[in-house]
Design brief:
Order of helices and strands: EEEHHEEEHHEEEEEEHHEEEHEEE
CATH superfamily of the largest domain: Fumarylacetoacetase-like, C-terminal domain
Number of domains: 2
CATH class of the largest domain: Alpha Beta
CATH architecture of the largest domain: Alpha-Beta Complex
Radius of gyration: 18 Å
Number of helices: 7
CATH topology of the largest domain: Fumarylacetoacetate hydrolase, domain 2
Distance between the termini: 43 Å
Strand content: 35-45%
Structural class: alpha+beta
Largest sheet: 11 strands, mixed
Number of strands: 18
Amino acid sequence: MTTPILTRFYHPARGEGVGVWLEDTVYDVTEHLPTVGAFLRNSVGHIQEAIDGLVVLAREAGVPYGAEQFNAAPQAFVPHWLAPCDEQEVWAAGVTYERSRAARQEEAQDGGDIYARVYQAQRPELFFKAQGKRVIGPWGEVGIRADATWNVPEPELALVVNPGMEVVGFTVGNDMSSRDIEGENPLYLPQAKVYKASCGMGPGIVLSPSNEWPHTTIRLSISRSDQVMFSGEVSTARIKRQIPGLLGYLGRSAEFPDGVMLLTGTGIVPPSDFTLQAGDVTTITIDGIGTLANTVKVV
Protein backbone atom coordinates (compact mmCIF):
# COMPACT_ATOMS: atom_id res chain seq x y z
CA MET A 1 0.00 0.00 0.00
CA THR A 2 1.28 3.45 -0.93
CA THR A 3 2.13 5.64 2.07
CA PRO A 4 -0.32 8.56 2.02
CA ILE A 5 0.98 12.12 2.03
CA LEU A 6 -1.10 14.93 3.53
CA THR A 7 -0.69 18.16 1.57
CA ARG A 8 -1.92 21.70 1.23
CA PHE A 9 -2.23 23.22 -2.22
CA TYR A 10 -3.63 26.12 -4.18
CA HIS A 11 -5.76 25.68 -7.29
CA PRO A 12 -7.12 28.75 -9.13
CA ALA A 13 -10.48 27.05 -9.60
CA ARG A 14 -10.92 26.19 -5.89
CA GLY A 15 -8.48 28.31 -3.87
CA GLU A 16 -6.51 26.83 -0.96
CA GLY A 17 -7.19 23.20 -0.17
CA VAL A 18 -6.13 20.12 1.78
CA GLY A 19 -5.24 17.05 -0.22
CA VAL A 20 -4.23 13.42 0.15
CA TRP A 21 -1.43 12.50 -2.25
CA LEU A 22 -1.52 8.87 -3.36
CA GLU A 23 0.94 7.79 -6.08
CA ASP A 24 0.53 10.39 -8.86
CA THR A 25 -2.83 11.82 -7.76
CA VAL A 26 -3.83 14.44 -5.19
CA TYR A 27 -7.36 14.01 -3.85
CA ASP A 28 -8.94 17.25 -2.65
CA VAL A 29 -10.64 16.50 0.69
CA THR A 30 -11.08 20.12 1.82
CA GLU A 31 -14.86 19.82 2.06
CA HIS A 32 -14.49 17.11 4.70
CA LEU A 33 -11.11 18.12 6.19
CA PRO A 34 -10.65 21.90 5.98
CA THR A 35 -7.25 22.11 7.73
CA VAL A 36 -4.19 20.06 8.61
CA GLY A 37 -4.96 20.98 12.20
CA ALA A 38 -8.31 19.21 11.98
CA PHE A 39 -6.59 15.97 11.00
CA LEU A 40 -3.98 16.29 13.75
CA ARG A 41 -6.67 16.91 16.38
CA ASN A 42 -8.70 13.94 15.17
CA SER A 43 -5.68 11.61 15.23
CA VAL A 44 -4.94 11.78 18.97
CA GLY A 45 -4.85 8.30 20.46
CA HIS A 46 -5.58 6.45 17.20
CA ILE A 47 -3.17 7.67 14.54
CA GLN A 48 -3.17 4.66 12.22
CA GLU A 49 -6.96 4.50 12.28
CA ALA A 50 -7.10 8.19 11.36
CA ILE A 51 -4.64 7.64 8.49
CA ASP A 52 -6.59 4.66 7.16
CA GLY A 53 -9.79 6.69 7.32
CA LEU A 54 -8.12 9.52 5.43
CA VAL A 55 -7.19 7.19 2.59
CA VAL A 56 -10.76 5.91 2.36
CA LEU A 57 -12.06 9.48 2.37
CA ALA A 58 -9.68 10.43 -0.42
CA ARG A 59 -10.63 7.57 -2.69
CA GLU A 60 -14.38 7.78 -2.06
CA ALA A 61 -15.04 11.52 -1.78
CA GLY A 62 -11.92 13.37 -2.94
CA VAL A 63 -11.71 15.43 -6.12
CA PRO A 64 -8.68 14.08 -8.07
CA TYR A 65 -5.90 16.21 -9.55
CA GLY A 66 -2.69 15.13 -11.22
CA ALA A 67 0.06 15.80 -8.68
CA GLU A 68 2.54 17.00 -11.30
CA GLN A 69 0.59 20.20 -11.99
CA PHE A 70 1.37 21.55 -8.50
CA ASN A 71 5.14 21.58 -9.13
CA ALA A 72 5.22 25.28 -9.95
CA ALA A 73 6.25 28.58 -8.40
CA PRO A 74 3.40 30.22 -6.45
CA GLN A 75 1.24 32.47 -8.63
CA ALA A 76 -2.44 33.35 -8.37
CA PHE A 77 -3.33 31.76 -11.71
CA VAL A 78 -1.19 28.61 -11.39
CA PRO A 79 -1.79 25.48 -9.26
CA HIS A 80 1.00 25.06 -6.70
CA TRP A 81 1.88 23.45 -3.40
CA LEU A 82 1.49 25.29 -0.11
CA ALA A 83 3.49 24.53 3.02
CA PRO A 84 1.82 21.54 4.75
CA CYS A 85 1.01 23.47 7.93
CA ASP A 86 -1.67 26.01 8.78
CA GLU A 87 -2.75 26.37 12.42
CA GLN A 88 0.42 24.86 13.90
CA GLU A 89 3.45 26.50 15.45
CA VAL A 90 6.82 25.46 14.06
CA TRP A 91 9.60 24.88 16.60
CA ALA A 92 13.19 23.82 16.09
CA ALA A 93 15.85 21.83 17.92
CA GLY A 94 19.45 22.97 17.69
CA VAL A 95 22.87 21.34 17.99
CA THR A 96 21.56 17.80 17.48
CA TYR A 97 24.40 16.74 15.16
CA GLU A 98 28.10 16.83 16.02
CA ARG A 99 28.73 18.82 12.82
CA SER A 100 26.28 21.48 13.97
CA ARG A 101 27.99 21.70 17.34
CA ALA A 102 31.38 22.19 15.67
CA ALA A 103 30.02 24.80 13.25
CA ARG A 104 28.40 26.83 16.01
CA GLN A 105 31.66 26.80 17.96
CA GLU A 106 33.57 27.93 14.86
CA GLU A 107 31.25 30.88 14.20
CA ALA A 108 30.91 32.00 17.83
CA GLN A 109 33.09 35.00 18.69
CA ASP A 110 33.41 33.83 22.30
CA GLY A 111 34.53 30.30 21.46
CA GLY A 112 31.10 28.69 21.62
CA ASP A 113 31.36 26.84 24.92
CA ILE A 114 27.57 26.97 25.33
CA TYR A 115 27.13 24.87 22.17
CA ALA A 116 29.45 22.18 23.45
CA ARG A 117 27.55 22.12 26.75
CA VAL A 118 24.09 21.89 25.20
CA TYR A 119 25.24 19.11 22.84
CA GLN A 120 26.08 16.99 25.91
CA ALA A 121 23.24 18.17 28.15
CA GLN A 122 20.10 16.20 28.88
CA ARG A 123 17.87 19.20 28.07
CA PRO A 124 17.94 20.03 24.33
CA GLU A 125 18.01 23.45 22.73
CA LEU A 126 14.46 24.23 21.55
CA PHE A 127 13.22 27.49 20.09
CA PHE A 128 10.18 28.90 18.31
CA LYS A 129 10.69 29.24 14.56
CA ALA A 130 7.47 30.32 12.78
CA GLN A 131 3.70 30.39 12.69
CA GLY A 132 2.35 27.80 10.27
CA LYS A 133 0.65 30.34 7.99
CA ARG A 134 3.97 32.16 7.53
CA VAL A 135 5.93 29.11 6.36
CA ILE A 136 7.07 29.13 2.73
CA GLY A 137 6.07 26.18 0.56
CA PRO A 138 7.84 24.50 -2.37
CA TRP A 139 9.19 26.85 -5.04
CA GLY A 140 8.31 29.87 -2.93
CA GLU A 141 10.92 32.44 -1.94
CA VAL A 142 12.78 31.98 1.34
CA GLY A 143 14.48 35.01 2.85
CA ILE A 144 17.94 36.18 3.84
CA ARG A 145 18.21 39.17 6.14
CA ALA A 146 19.30 42.47 4.60
CA ASP A 147 21.34 43.26 7.72
CA ALA A 148 23.25 39.95 7.74
CA THR A 149 26.43 39.03 5.88
CA TRP A 150 26.53 35.26 6.37
CA ASN A 151 23.29 33.47 5.46
CA VAL A 152 22.79 29.73 4.96
CA PRO A 153 19.98 27.20 4.60
CA GLU A 154 19.71 24.45 7.18
CA PRO A 155 18.18 21.27 5.71
CA GLU A 156 16.26 19.37 8.36
CA LEU A 157 13.89 16.48 8.89
CA ALA A 158 10.70 17.83 10.47
CA LEU A 159 8.45 15.91 12.84
CA VAL A 160 4.70 16.44 12.53
CA VAL A 161 3.12 16.03 15.95
CA ASN A 162 -0.52 15.98 17.07
CA PRO A 163 -1.90 17.67 20.24
CA GLY A 164 -1.20 14.46 22.20
CA MET A 165 2.53 14.90 21.37
CA GLU A 166 2.40 11.82 19.13
CA VAL A 167 4.37 11.71 15.88
CA VAL A 168 2.00 11.50 12.93
CA GLY A 169 4.54 11.83 10.14
CA PHE A 170 7.52 13.61 8.63
CA THR A 171 8.24 16.37 6.15
CA VAL A 172 11.18 18.35 4.76
CA GLY A 173 12.20 21.61 6.44
CA ASN A 174 14.55 24.53 5.76
CA ASP A 175 15.60 26.47 8.87
CA MET A 176 17.13 29.58 7.26
CA SER A 177 19.80 31.15 9.46
CA SER A 178 21.96 34.27 9.71
CA ARG A 179 25.13 32.76 11.13
CA ASP A 180 27.00 36.04 11.64
CA ILE A 181 24.20 37.44 13.83
CA GLU A 182 24.03 34.41 16.11
CA GLY A 183 27.83 34.15 16.09
CA GLU A 184 28.17 37.71 17.37
CA ASN A 185 26.09 36.89 20.45
CA PRO A 186 23.97 33.77 21.18
CA LEU A 187 21.28 36.03 22.63
CA TYR A 188 20.68 37.26 19.08
CA LEU A 189 19.41 33.79 18.05
CA PRO A 190 15.78 34.93 17.64
CA GLN A 191 16.91 37.61 15.18
CA ALA A 192 19.13 35.11 13.35
CA LYS A 193 16.36 32.54 13.10
CA VAL A 194 12.93 34.20 13.22
CA TYR A 195 12.23 36.74 10.49
CA LYS A 196 10.17 37.09 7.33
CA ALA A 197 10.32 33.99 5.08
CA SER A 198 12.87 32.30 7.34
CA CYS A 199 11.21 28.86 7.25
CA GLY A 200 10.44 26.59 4.33
CA MET A 201 8.58 23.29 4.47
CA GLY A 202 7.03 20.70 2.19
CA PRO A 203 5.87 19.39 -0.13
CA GLY A 204 3.76 17.17 2.13
CA ILE A 205 3.52 15.17 5.35
CA VAL A 206 4.46 11.53 4.85
CA LEU A 207 2.01 9.93 7.28
CA SER A 208 4.06 7.41 9.23
CA PRO A 209 3.60 7.27 13.03
CA SER A 210 6.90 6.41 14.68
CA ASN A 211 9.05 7.27 17.69
CA GLU A 212 12.20 6.31 15.80
CA TRP A 213 14.16 8.25 13.21
CA PRO A 214 13.56 7.06 9.66
CA HIS A 215 16.78 5.55 8.30
CA THR A 216 17.35 7.98 5.47
CA THR A 217 19.72 10.53 3.96
CA ILE A 218 19.27 14.29 3.88
CA ARG A 219 20.80 16.07 0.88
CA LEU A 220 21.35 19.77 0.16
CA SER A 221 22.28 21.44 -3.13
CA ILE A 222 22.67 25.20 -3.63
CA SER A 223 22.68 26.52 -7.20
CA ARG A 224 23.54 29.96 -8.57
CA SER A 225 22.90 30.72 -12.24
CA ASP A 226 22.51 26.97 -12.85
CA GLN A 227 25.91 26.25 -11.29
CA VAL A 228 26.11 24.11 -8.14
CA MET A 229 27.86 26.21 -5.49
CA PHE A 230 27.60 23.70 -2.65
CA SER A 231 26.28 20.22 -2.01
CA GLY A 232 26.35 17.92 0.96
CA GLU A 233 24.55 15.05 2.64
CA VAL A 234 24.13 13.46 6.05
CA SER A 235 22.45 10.37 7.45
CA THR A 236 19.73 10.70 10.07
CA ALA A 237 21.71 8.09 12.01
CA ARG A 238 23.99 10.99 12.99
CA ILE A 239 21.28 12.69 15.06
CA LYS A 240 22.43 12.50 18.67
CA ARG A 241 19.03 12.82 20.36
CA GLN A 242 16.00 10.58 20.24
CA ILE A 243 12.46 11.59 19.29
CA PRO A 244 10.80 10.88 22.69
CA GLY A 245 13.36 13.02 24.47
CA LEU A 246 12.88 15.99 22.12
CA LEU A 247 9.09 15.81 22.31
CA GLY A 248 9.18 15.27 26.06
CA TYR A 249 10.93 18.58 26.55
CA LEU A 250 8.90 20.36 23.85
CA GLY A 251 5.66 19.39 25.60
CA ARG A 252 6.77 20.40 29.10
CA SER A 253 4.70 23.27 30.50
CA ALA A 254 3.28 23.77 26.99
CA GLU A 255 0.35 22.71 24.88
CA PHE A 256 -0.25 22.68 21.15
CA PRO A 257 -4.00 22.36 20.56
CA ASP A 258 -3.60 22.26 16.77
CA GLY A 259 -0.45 20.16 16.72
CA VAL A 260 3.13 21.30 16.20
CA MET A 261 5.98 20.87 13.71
CA LEU A 262 9.50 20.29 15.05
CA LEU A 263 12.59 20.85 12.92
CA THR A 264 15.24 18.47 14.25
CA GLY A 265 18.55 20.15 13.49
CA THR A 266 21.05 20.12 10.65
CA GLY A 267 24.13 18.06 9.96
CA ILE A 268 25.01 19.86 6.71
CA VAL A 269 26.88 23.16 7.07
CA PRO A 270 28.30 25.10 4.08
CA PRO A 271 31.87 26.41 4.53
CA SER A 272 32.46 29.72 6.29
CA ASP A 273 33.39 31.47 3.01
CA PHE A 274 29.96 30.78 1.50
CA THR A 275 26.83 32.90 1.90
CA LEU A 276 23.53 32.82 0.06
CA GLN A 277 22.66 35.48 -2.50
CA ALA A 278 19.34 36.61 -3.96
CA GLY A 279 18.35 34.30 -6.80
CA ASP A 280 20.10 31.23 -5.43
CA VAL A 281 18.09 28.00 -5.45
CA THR A 282 18.22 25.68 -2.45
CA THR A 283 17.14 22.07 -2.99
CA ILE A 284 16.70 19.77 0.01
CA THR A 285 15.90 16.11 -0.58
CA ILE A 286 15.19 13.56 2.14
CA ASP A 287 14.97 10.07 0.69
CA GLY A 288 11.50 8.66 1.21
CA ILE A 289 10.12 12.01 2.45
CA GLY A 290 10.33 14.44 -0.47
CA THR A 291 12.14 17.33 -2.12
CA LEU A 292 11.83 21.00 -1.14
CA ALA A 293 13.20 23.58 -3.58
CA ASN A 294 13.13 27.33 -2.94
CA THR A 295 14.50 30.51 -4.47
CA VAL A 296 16.28 33.00 -2.20
CA LYS A 297 15.36 36.68 -1.82
CA VAL A 298 16.52 39.50 0.45
CA VAL A 299 14.02 40.55 3.12
